[in-house]
User: Fold this.
Amino acid sequence: MSDDSDPAASGMHEDLGFDDDQLAAMPTVYRDGLMQDQVVLISGGGSGIGKGIAFLCARLGAKVVICGRTPEKLTATCDAVEKAVGVRPLDVAMSIREPQMVDTLMDRVFGEYGRLDHLINNAGGQFPQDAIDFSRKGWSAVIDLNLNGTWWMMQAAAVRWRERSQQGNIIGIVANVERGMPQAAHTCAARAGVIYLSKTLATEWAPLNIRVNTVAGGVIESEGFRVYPEDALERFHEANPMRKRGDVWDIAEACVYLMAPSGDFITGEMLVVDGGQAQNGAVWPAGRPEYFGGKKSNGI
Assistant:
């Protein structure tokens, strides 16, 4: 499970994820200039997975745009990327839950660059809790952000691609929900919606030369892990048969695979990056219940 929302985190777990220097120097399988001058818009690009994608795309020559709700995070990421590659991304503070803000964002991107090549729907968030205890406000907030906000971004981009007769590429960062996600039912429902929405749109929008895919991460370590209990973090690596955590670079390189010529004949698919968790393993982010062989506070 990954989380790239803006949780009110304490100073705990400050070592989670990669720092800016690591992202600037991380080895990559891709050649320099692979994405030269392509325009990439990444929601939730100020931290976590989105930040990793922004670094990689910028290092490969792309013109990067990041958006998110926290201006300070966006500015810090742009500063770090500019320091690393010498080119500053465009950042836009906004909420994808607001359709008018989404339209304003898209108009700015198309106005600034004349086009958009890739949309990475990464923004999202959730909190660990038993479903029976969800408040209506908590449920609605996660659904509105993870599903509705993603849809506003997809539709707004597609409308502008159609108006300009331009091809486009959409990638949604989701989770593998095939076996459900206990203690994260709200995001499970939303991510399932995005996955099957993407499969549907891949067919509907094929005549427009728009490809639509998703990337499903497993236990991907980032600063978003700070919302989870300490004892759960200690056992997260046991949620897959490889017995380790993934990282934001795993997701970033998966996204580039779908953006590069290697992905030209791929649409309507979900690329799973989870260390085999889909086959064997379970995450209990709020603690494994006694019914399933653990104590509520024991994590996985």
In short: DSSP finds eight helices and nine strands in the chain.
